[in-house]
Design a protein that fits this description.
Length: 463
């Protein structure tokens, strides 16, 4: 313990002697760490869409394409007959399946609420992990006149009042058609969801309200499948076409076709892929290439600050050659010196991280507003510290390792003789390389920023 306290005293003494250099080093690294963490939070948030479901890696939604394969038109609404037939056809691959159908709007006391009313198969509870808040979700499916509401819907319909036992009505084309009693309230797991609007309420599936006969290509419900472990929908493409050929002999009117899959095809999409690959125009989508570009910028910002950190550490190390020579003459071994200088580098990185987290807390809301999203970074959560702690260890070790190796290997006779302290630790080429790297990356980012700015200005000024 006394050894580490001695390392700390030496570090603080050196910090007082080189205040300006230390401040520049800490602030520069803090800015890089802040940029990296802020962009990392944004990238993680973008890749988290619809992955808050416990079985998200096995949930796929069904959609179909109409038209020639070269120019298909896609829609996420499929025939209500498709899901049960697909489940039976692929029984070895599909664990369960459920349909969702929008019947109309919800009204309370005759006043329209601007909320769609959905009905769903009971299997929906096996696919999505809704958290019961009040009532019994299973009991909802025991009566066609019961409904389950999400907490969001309860707040919109009843405010802070208890919802159980109250009634809502189904309104279609301005006419009240059915009354439903609220039998359960549930919570949707927290997280971004491109399809969250489909899971705000549900009543039992009522086959009697569905069309008796309808062309297979005409969609009116949403279909979700839960795959068995180890099953990939990419392996189904050919088999889906075979399903269409067998089960949909005449998808358009009554004209028979030898190959109906040439104009009508079923496809699968993992629910976690919806955000970056939306099927419908109104779905809230993101641009994966843009997100990946941001991730690259975050890595480059960290790399520039790390290069600056190593460069300044090398400069500071040159001033300590005589100290190292004297300590070696007094019996210090290279291993202890290496440990000390890496320890000092980790402490510097730790100070930089504290400043970076303060900046992050201040700048993250501004960055989130600029990106048109909501981002959160809770410093009080234990798991939140794992990434910054790992970052400190990695950056501190990388940033301090070469200067520590160079100093610990110095020969005392070369350092203590007249003029010996003016050496460069053999790092002149490395320092030139690091400075050139920083200049190159900074120039590239500045040029990219100017290009984007000019392109946006051009777009705003043109008709």
């Amino acid at each position: 313990m006394s050894l580490w306290l001695n390392y700390l005293r030496v570090f603080l003494r050196d910090l007082r002697r080189q205040k300006v250099s230390a401040v520049i080093n800490i602030v520069g690294l803090a800015l890089g760490l802040c940029a990296f963490l802020m962009i990392g939070i944004y990238v993680r948030d973008e890749y988290s869409w619809d992955r808050h479901w416990e079985k998200s890696d096995r949930i796929v939604r069904l959609f179909h394409e109409i038209g020639l394969p070269a120019e298909p038109t896609s829609t996420d609404q499929v025939s209500h007959k498709a899901v049960p037939q697909l489940r039976e056809f692929f029984s070895s691959d599909i664990e369960t399946a459920a349909r969702i159908f929008s019947r109309g709007g919800i009204a309370v006391d005759g006043e329209a609420a601007g909320i769609s009313l959905f009905m769903a198969d009971r299997e929906l509870l096996d696919i999505f992990d809704f958290e019961p808040v009040a009532g019994d979700l299973e009991a909802v499916f025991a009566d066609l006149n019961r409904i389950a509401l999400s907490e969001e819907n309860v707040a919109r319909l009843f405010g802070n009042e208890p919802a159980l036992g109250k009634t809502v009505s189904l309104v279609v084309a301005g006419q009240e058609q059915a009354i439903f009693e609220v039998a359960a309230v549930y919570r949707i797991p927290a997280g971004n969801g491109a399809l969250r609007w489909q899971f705000q309420n549900f009543t039992p599936w009522n086959e009697s309200v569905m069309p008796e006969s309808r062309p297979y290509a005409s969609g009116n419900s949403y279909g979700y499948l839960l795959l068995r472990d180890g099953v990939s929908p990419q392996d189904w493409v050919a088999r889906l076409d075979e399903f269409v050929k067998q089960q949909v002999p005449s998808p358009f009117g009554t004209r028979a076709m030898d190959n109906p899959q040439e104009l009508f095809r079923y496809r699968m999409q993992f629910i976690g892929d919806v955000h970056f690959n939306p099927i419908m125009m109104f779905e809230e989508g993101g641009f994966q290439s843009t997100v990946n570009g941001f991730a690259l910028i975050g890595v480059l910002a960290l790399a520039v600050s790390l290069a600056n950190f190593v460069t300044l550490n090398l400069a500071r190390s040159v001033e300590r050659q005589r100290e190292v020579g004297i300590r070696k003459v007094m019996g210090a071994v290279s291993g202890s010196l290496l440990t000390q200088f890496v320890f000092e580098s980790l402490l510097l990185t730790g100070f930089a991280l504290i400043l970076a987290l303060v900046l992050l807390k201040l700048l993250l809301p501004v960055f989130a507003a600029l990106m048109g999203t909501t981002l959160d970074f809770n410093l009080l959560q234990g798991s939140t510290w794992l990434a910054p702690a790992a970052l400190v260890l990695a950056v501190g070790a990388i940033g301090g390792l070469y200067p520590a190796l160079a100093l610990s290997r110095q020969r005392p006779d070369r350092v203590l003789r007249p003029g010996g302290q003016s050496g460069t630790l053999g790092a002149r080429n490395l320092r030139q390389l690091l400075v050139g790297f920083q200049f190159l990356i900074a120039t590239a980012l500045i040029v990219a920023t100017l290009v984007v700015y000019l392109q946006l200005a051009y777009a705003r000024q043109r008709d």
